[in-house]
Amino acid sequence: MSKLKTILIYLLLLVSTGLLGWLAYDWLWPWWQKQPQPARLTPLHQAVKLSPADPEAYYNRALAYAQQGQLKAALSDLDQAITLNPQFAAAWYNRGGLHTQTGQYHEAIHDYTQAQKFAPTDPDPWLNRGWVYQQLGRSALAEGDWKRASALGKGRFSVSEQADLFQLRGRHSQAITLYTQALQSHPQTAKLWAARGLSYFQNGQATEALKDYSQAIALEPSAQAYAGRAQAYRQLQQLPQALSDYGTAIFLEPRPETYLARSQIWQNQGNFPRAESDLTEALKLAPNFEAYSAQGRFYEQQQQWEQALKSYSEGIRLRPTAALAYLQRANVYRAQRRFSEATQDYQQAATLEPTNATIPYQQAKLQLVARNKPEAVKLLKRAIQLNPALAQQLGQDRDLRTISRLPAFQALRR
C-alpha cells in the first residue's frame, strides 16, 4: 500500500471524533469501500501498534472487525477499549450490540446500562436495551425503556427515527406511515427503503417488502438489504431468488443469522450437506443459543439423537432460562424413550413458562409413549385451556392416534 493511501486511511479514522467528516464522505469513503477487507484492517493494526494505550485505536479496529463478521476479534478489542477507558460510552454501546447479535442478552443489558450511565442523554442505549428485554419476554421493561428513549429524543428525533421506534415496538403500520413520510423528503436514502421493507415484511406484506428492498439495493447494495429481500422471496416461496440473495448478503457481510436462514432453505430442500455447512459457519461466527438450537433441530430431523442432545445441551448452558431449550431436549429424550430425563426437562420448561401450551401438549405425547393414556388426556386438556386453538389439530396429529377413540379425547375436540 502506498504511503499516500495509508495517510488517507488514517484521516478516515478521524471521522469518529467528528473531524474531517466532509472529506471522508465526499472523497475517502467511496475509495475506502472499494478496498479489499484485509487491506482495510492493515492501518488499524498499525494504529493499535503505534498507540497501544489509546482506546480509540481498539474501538476503530473493533468496528472494522465487526463489519467483516469477525465478532470474537471485535469483542476482544471493545473489551480492551473499555479497560483503557471505563467511561467510553460508545464502546459499551457497541459491545452491547455484539452481545445482542450473539444472543448474550444478559451481557447486552449490562453493557447498554453502562452506556446509559456514561451517555445519559443518548436515546439509543435505551432503544436497544428495550429490544433485548422484549426478546426475553420482559415486555413491561421493554416498554419502559422505549418510553424513556422517546422522551430523550423528543424534539430531536427525525421522522425516520420516530419510525424506527415504532418498528421496535411492533407497531408496523405506524412505522410504515412515518417511513413513507421520510422517503418523500429523502427518496435516495437506501436505508429508509430497507427499513420500510422490514416493516412491510413484519406486517405480513411480503410483496411490498420485496419492492422496497429492491429499491434499496438499486440505490446502495448492502448485506442488510439483500438479506431482507431474501427473506421476502422466501415468504413468497421464490426459493432460488432467496438463495441467490442470501449468498450475496454473505459475500458482502458474513453474519450468523444469514447463514442460519439459508441453512433452513437447504434443509427444507433436502440438501443436508449444505445445510450443515451453513450451520457450522454460523457457529464459527457466533456460537450462541440460536445457532445451537438450529443445529439441534437439524440433527433431530436427521434422527442423529446424540448430536442433537449435544447441541441442545450447549444451548441450555448458554441460556439456562430459555424454556424452549429444555422443551427441545425433552423431545429428543422422548424419541429415545429416556422417560426420566424427558420428564425432568419438560418440568423445567413448564416452570420457566407455565402458560406455554406447547409444553403440556408435548408432555402428553411422552405419557402416551409411557402408555399412560389418562395422564395424556389430562395434559392435553391443560394445553387446550392455555390455547383453545390446539383443539383443532388434535385429530390431525398422528402421535395421538392411540387415544383418538377415547370419549375423553373426543370431548376435547368439541
Molecular structure report:
The protein is mainly α and 414 residues long. Among the domains are: 96 residues, Serine Threonine Protein Phosphatase 5, Tetratricopeptide repeat (Alpha Horseshoe); 93 residues, Serine Threonine Protein Phosphatase 5, Tetratricopeptide repeat, CATH 1.25.40. It is 75% helix and 0% strand. It is built from 24 helices and no strands. The protein is globular. The relative contact order is 0.04.
Please supply descriptive tags for the structure shown above.
mainly alpha, 24 helices, Serine Threonine Protein Phosphatase 5, Tetratricopeptide repeat, disordered N terminus, 414 residues
Shape: globular
Listing every helix as H and every strand as E from the N terminus to the C terminus, the arrangement reads HHHHHHHHHHHHHHHHHHHHHHHH
Distance between the termini: 75 Å
Count helical runs: 24
CATH class call of the domain at 158-253: Mainly Alpha
For the biggest sheet, the summary is: none
Low-confidence stretches: 1-36
Mean pLDDT: 86
SSE diagram, text form:
Layout lengths: L2 H11 L7 H14 L2 H14 L4 H13 L3 H14 L4 H13 L3 H14 L5 H12 L3 H15 L5 H10 L3 H14 L4 H13 L3 H14 L3 H13 L3 H14 L3 H13 L3 H14 L3 H13 L3 H14 L4 H13 L3 H14 L5 H12 L3 H14 L20 H6 L2
Helix pairs in contact: 1-2, 3-4, 4-5, 5-6, 6-7, 7-8, 8-9, 10-11, 11-12, 12-13, 12-14, 13-14, 14-15, 15-16, 16-17, 17-18, 18-19, 19-20, 20-21, 21-22, 22-23
